[in-house]
Structures are given as structure tokens and as C-alpha cells.
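Q: Given only this backbone (138 positions), what sequence would you predict?
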């Protein structure tokens, strides 16, 4: 891999897998971009009627308030899933670049109308699965 503004050097190692070496300035740049992206996604969700994201200050807990009605809107459901994927990816980058190789993101999903907890998972160890059965099992 050639040198770029994103990393100093990259290679594949049998022991470590894909390795990207970055300078301290590149690490700071990545962290800044990652934090800005998480804030952007969370702010955008505040305009949504069927879901809202919040995240803890340490980026270890993601809160998702969601309406059951989201299951009737494929485009909104797809947008929510895309945002969720972005937030989990950004959280991973944030924690790895801060030296936490065994990172995880707790995702707590709450019903917007009732306030009841629908899911509480530790990602990536547990899978996120929101469906009609989630509400049926309340």
C-alpha cells in the first residue's frame, strides 16, 4: 500500500492480518473525522419521526428510540439501518485508534411510544435484530 494522507504504510501479516501504520497526526485526523461523522448521523436522526439516536460521551453506549411504525416504511427502515452501520463502524474506529482492541458497543433499543426496552445487546458479540417479533415479545 502506498503512503497516503490516511495511513503511513499498510501490509498484510499472517499473524496480525491487515496492518495499517499511521502517524500520530493521521490518528488524530481519523479520530476527528470519526467523531464528526457520529455527531452528523445523530443530529440527522433528530429530524426523523420514527427513530432517534443518542450516544454516550465515551462512545460506548448507543441508544436508539424507535417506533413500531418504522416496520411499515421500508425507506425509513433502510435509512435507520444505514445510520446504525455507520455508527457501529465509527465507534469501532474510535475505540481501536484509542488503543482499545477489544472494543464493544452496547446498543439499547427502546420503543418510542411506550419507553419499554426492545433490545440490549453488546455489539459485535451479539447481533442486532429488530422485527415485529421484537414488539410481540414485550
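A: Predicted residues:
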Amino acid at each position: 500500500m502506498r503512503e497516503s494522507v490516511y495511513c503511513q504504510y499498510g501490509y498484510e501479516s499472517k499473524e496480525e492480518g491487515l496492518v495499517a501504520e499511521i502517524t500520530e497526526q493521521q490518528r488524530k485526523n481519523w479520530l476527528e473525522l470519526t467523531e464528526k461523522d457520529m455527531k452528523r448521523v445523530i443530529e440527522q436522526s433528530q429530524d426523523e419521526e420514527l427513530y432517534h439516536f443518542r450516544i454516550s460521551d465515551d462512545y460506548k453506549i448507543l441508544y436508539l428510540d424507535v417506533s413500531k411504525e418504522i416496520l411499515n416504511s421500508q425507506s425509513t427502515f433502510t435509512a435507520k439501518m444505514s445510520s446504525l452501520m455507520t455508527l457501529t463502524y465509527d465507534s469501532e474506529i474510535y475505540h481501536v485508534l484509542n488503543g482499545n482492541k477489544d472494543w464493544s458497543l452496547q446498543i439499547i433499543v427502546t420503543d418510542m411510544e411506550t419507553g419499554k426496552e426492545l433490545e440490549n445487546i453488546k455489539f459485535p458479540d451479539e447481533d442486532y435484530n429488530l422485527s415485529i417479533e421484537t414488539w410481540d415479545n414485550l
